Amino acid sequence: MKKKVLLYNFSGERLNGVKRSLIPIKAVAQEVDKALYGEKLGYLLGVEGYTAGGAAAENFDEELLVMSGFDGGDIDELIRSLRKYGVGRVALKAIVTGTNIDWSSSELYYAVKADHEEMQKRRSGR
């Protein structure tokens, strides 16, 4: 499977930095328009068998980076590359799985956001 990264709400230098950081790992960046947040990830990634027809979805404004076709080494390399190209930390990241490929962007965002908030609570000892 080709390496692809869906990008949500990145702009300016951060967007450019993310795109540059994908070059060393030969991954393709795809910016996702808010009008497509109700479509399944499989459709957005061009996976065979997925067609347009998502329901209306709630928009979100936070940055979200969704990786497809990545293995553990690719993820580590991307994180290093994001630092190298001045992007730094991207709080909300996800890998496409057999389960979430059927989710809309909004569904994935809320799941990742909840996981992130739970990890933050654990780190702060609450």
State the low-pLDDT regions, or none: none
- Counting DSSP E segments of at least 2 residues, the number of strands comes to 4
Q: Please tell me what the overall shape is.
A: globular
Q: Which range best describes the helical content: under 10%, 10-25%, 25-40%, 40-55%, 55-70% or over 70%?
A: 25-40%
- The number of distinct structural domains comes to 1
Mean residue pLDDT: 94
User: In angstroms, what separates the terminal alpha carbons?
Assistant: 40 Å
Percentage of β-strand residues: 5-15%
What is the N-to-C order of secondary-structure elements (H for helix, E for strand)?
A: EHEHEHEH
Structural class: alpha/beta
Number of helices: 4
Radius of gyration: 14 Å
How do the strands of the widest beta sheet line up side by side? 2-1-3-4
Q: How is the biggest beta sheet arranged?
A: 4 strands, mixed
